[in-house]
């Protein structure tokens, strides 16, 4: 299986992406906030959405912000072992479609404050 392929649940195989130092720092902070650790029950994941929307309050209109990455958490039992990446003391997963990875040859996740969730794929 090619490293760019995803499994039936959309998880990428370990090694499909890398993290910049800034993205790693963001993920480590998020991991601490959700109780994820090297052997914890939870795991951080970088998930790609083809469409994203949010609203500033319950009464506000939904705003479409297009495709992009977000940090999410999973129970470790939901992530297959072959999809657990390791970098800089962080165990993490990624769910990025194969066609999106193919369009980003560096396959590097970076911090980008211009993005809604401060993450981008290069």
What does this entry look like structurally?
It is a single chain. The protein has 122 residues and is α/β, with parallel strands linked by helices. The chain has one domain (18-51, 66-121): Hypothetical Protein Aq_1857, Chain: A (Sandwich), CATH 2.60.300. 16% of the residues lie in helices and 31% in strands. The strands form 3 sheets. The chain has a 4-stranded mixed β-sheet, covered by helices on one side. Strands 1-8-9 form a 3-stranded mixed β-sheet. Strands 3-4 form a two-stranded antiparallel ribbon. The longest helix has 14 residues, at 21-34. The chain is globular. The mean pLDDT is 90.
Any descriptors?
122 residues; alpha/beta; Hypothetical Protein Aq_1857, Chain: A; 4-stranded mixed sheet; 3-stranded mixed sheet
The pLDDT mean sits at 90
Which strand order do you get reading across the main beta sheet? 5-2-7-6
In CATH, what is the class?
Answer: Mainly Beta
Distance between the termini: 23 Å
Structural class of the helices, strands and pairings? Answer: alpha/beta
Report the β-strand fraction as a percent range.
25-35%
Helix-strand sequence: EHEEEEEEHEE
Q: Examine the coordinates and then state which fold CATH places here, giving the name of the CATH topology.
A: Hypothetical Protein Aq_1857, Chain: A
* Tally of DSSP β-strands: 9
Summarize the structure in short.
By secondary structure, the protein is an alpha/beta fold. It contains two helices and nine strands; from the N terminus they run E-H-E-E-E-E-E-E-H-E-E. The strands form three sheets. A four-stranded mixed β-sheet has the order 5-2-7-6, covered by helices on one side.
């Amino acid at each position: 299986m090619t490293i760019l392929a995803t499994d039936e649940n959309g998880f990428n195989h370990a090694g499909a992406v890398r993290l910049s130092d800034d993205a790693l720092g963001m993920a480590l902070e998020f991991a601490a906030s959700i109780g994820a650790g090297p052997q914890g029950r939870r795991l951080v994941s970088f998930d790609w959405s083809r469409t994203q929307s949010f609203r500033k309050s319950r009464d506000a209109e939904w705003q479409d912000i297009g495709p992009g990455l977000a940090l999410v958490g999973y129970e470790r039992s939901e992530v297959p072992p072959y999809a657990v990446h390791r970098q800089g003391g962080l165990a993490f997963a990624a769910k990025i479609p194969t066609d999106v990875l193919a369009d980003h040859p560096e396959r590097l996740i970076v911090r980008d404050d211009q993005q809604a969730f401060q993450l981008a794929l290069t």
